[in-house]
Records
---
Amino acid sequence: MTAEEKLAIEERIVEVLKTVYDPEIPVDIYSLGLIYRIELQDDGNLEVDMTLTAPNCPAADFIMEDVRLKLSGIEGVKEAKVNLVFEPEWDKDMMSDEAKLELGFM
């Protein structure tokens, strides 16, 4: 895959991540700062590290599967692996300014 193709796929990955929501929070997981790493290999294998706002999130399985299915559906992504990590621990400072505004933190 060329550098331009890879960049286009990476941009699409971010767009798709912005369509995934925690059912209890009206802000997407990307803007919440829950995505820690996106690594797209030249062969189309994708690995994403993400966290949750709380380790005991009742929607964890739903969110993780939603992310994996949506990323797997992107043209150019051969396989999507989603890793759930809790280091570093998430806090509200990781949110985008837009997310903070939406949730009343600004």
---
Amino acid sequence: MLFSGTVQIDAPRARTWAFLIDPDKVSSCGPGVESVEIIDAANFKVRAKVGVGFISAKFVVNMTFAELTAPDKAVIKASGQAPGSAVDAVGSMLLSGPPEGPTTMDWSAEVDISGSLAGVGARLMEGTANKIVGQTFDCIKAKLEG
């Protein structure tokens, strides 16, 4: 599945960048995120509960910053497991706009889910993913613009 979009954030680019590459800060906006373990500057582990339709799973996801070009571009790779399901993803963001803001974030994510969650169907999964993305970006905007 491929997801993408553009988000306008009324905040300076450097502050937006610092927030978005901080796993603790971003995870505070992720619905279902239970914990974040920072391994080193480029690697961290996230534990999250995800529900699609009537199926719910607790994922442990290893995440790596594959590319960081401050304050403009980041690429992150994720690979995780839950009982009966697995996920692999690559996400990217590109920040643009004047240094003082507002900041425009163009983002994309390619997500591959297998196992019992994948069996739920693309329509349900896509709706759930869009809901989670919307809630996450609303929270990020509120924290950066507030």
---
Amino acid sequence: MLSYLKKLHSNPNTLFYVIPIGLFGGFVFWQSLLNNYVVEVANFSGRDIGILQSCRELPGLLAVTALFFLLFLSEQFFLVFALALMGTFIIVFGHMHTIFSLSLTCMLMSFGFHYSETLRKSLATQLVHKDILSIVLGRFRSIGSFVSILAFGTVYVGWKLLHLSYSTLFTIGGSISILVALYILIAFPKYEIKEQQHKKPRFYKRYWIFYILNILSGGRRQLFVVFAPFLMVSTFKLEIDKMVSIFFISQLLTMYFAPKVGKVILKIGERNALIIEHLILIFIFAGYVLIHTAWQGITLYIADNIVFSMSFALDSYFKRIAQKKDIASTTALSFTMNHTLAISLPVILGFIWLSSHKFVFAVGICLAAASLITSFCLPKNPRQGVESIFKERQQAT
């Protein structure tokens, strides 16, 4: 048994099947409890949730600072530390009651989450072969959905049947992340990164499509993570058991579809996958503008979560065009770019929300349309030296 586990852990792909247990296991507890917790305990308004979510996204804007820590820490060890940091402040979050303390604790938790995500993407791009990266990421997403289902189920049972307090449930979620971090530290060998990585942020013109799509994706994510669930709680008055049920069903479908999406991306190519994703998103955000019932909102939320699996095409595209030594620095920089809109939009849209939630989701239509236009700039066969359709045409002539 021990020899089998040792052999299993020697394959770096296995690491990316364990990370989602800690990443989603903790974060989903926090996410599923958040909206009801802040409304019931701290009497949050749309403005308040916007402020808190902007604080949560600030560490994403500072994700490039991960490069400083990589001067004296390996990416793999830093990932372990980040997961443990996230888990610790998920636990602390459940004991806070004011907008200041909740926002501060949320920000510290978010440093752990965003560093984990940055390092996970960087390590996957370096350690997983480009021809199977979309498949591995699809499995990552599927495992994350399975873990999320278990987390949502635990929250539902804990809240509805066992009558556990918010603080107890936050503690369970945070402890999962900490335990997984310890497991990775003890059980996995240190994988060798053959190509020395740049440790300073650098902007490369050849990655311009990757940068733009990351920026637009960050804005779109806020509408899905922040305002879609808040709409169902604040406007349609859904209670925590119903919200958890929605998250549960959404993750169950994602668990089924995500590995299939990874194979589809490999078959149709990153360009077509991203075009399809953003075309569907336009209709989803238009739906949010027009809805009048909770069931319509639930349907759109579930559809959005499934479509999000197609975003792995962007990481797969980057793997194909990137020079190996650029991966760590470019991943960190793109993650920071991803949060330029993510940190500003929640506050701005939070104030707009006070007038009408329809205007908020109309912004989502614009973001999806801009992403769609940019996706058409990807080449059919992306590779080093052919990062855009314009470079592809140059080579053809």
---
Amino acid sequence: MDTTLVVLAAGMGSRFGGLKQLTPLSASGETIADFSAYDAIQAGFTKIVYVIKKDFEAEFVEKVASRIKGVKVELAFQDMQDLPVGFSVPYGRTNPWGTSHALWAARHIVSEPFMVISADDFYGRGVFKSMHNFLANEVKDNGKYTFVMPGHQLAKTVSDYGSVSRAVCVVEDDYLVGVRELRKIEKRPEGIGHDVFGEFEILPDDTIVNMLVFGFTPAIFKAIEDGFTDFFTAFEGSLEAEYFLNNVVKKLIADGLATMKVLPVADRWMGMTYSQDLPIVKAHIGDLIAKGKYPEKLF
């Protein structure tokens, strides 16, 4: 079965201090997106779709998309004016609508089961292999959608250099039953946690979080479009509110329309939230290359 990797690459890395999607991480100049593409191809994905902003198409094609070999590559463009019929952009809004809207931009060119990831993060090949296996053999739409996600452990996803936001998952019998969006999670001497009305709440190190990685069928595009009504009703006129993909997933599960299998994760996740994270990511990838996990030049 054909499967696609959708890479959300439209966001600018404000906290990192630049367009981190294009930051070279190896001696050959590969980016995080290159390593994700390589791992996806090795896992069996047959197409890669990058969701980007139209205004950096030329640079992205030159530095990322044109480098990919051995798989079909397509681009989708997140445009804040691209909204379902009946909706319009509030006066003064300059930012797009978040991860759900970004994924919805790929609706016209994705017609097979797919995995969606962030261009900012390094996930490891095992995640791509397990996700591809599920999408190729177990995903189906017959009354209830069967979706999938990898379950990363919180302690392996926080930065030493500042706070992060995470989608904290409630998992029962290997299935997702709830999601909480928590902001300003940080490391302190007493543990990892976040502020709750002035009190620092400790979160267990093995708390399962979603790192913006899901496996869907194309049915998710209709669910996203339907959810715009609720989103705009709740945030009409907002200049900052974002339509998170986690919220779409949470509603489908709550309404009994979908299940979300949570797969175990052994690979080390690496992200570049802050500029100080960059040398750590480079060193980790350099170590993997030295051990022969990746070739000196990916493509």
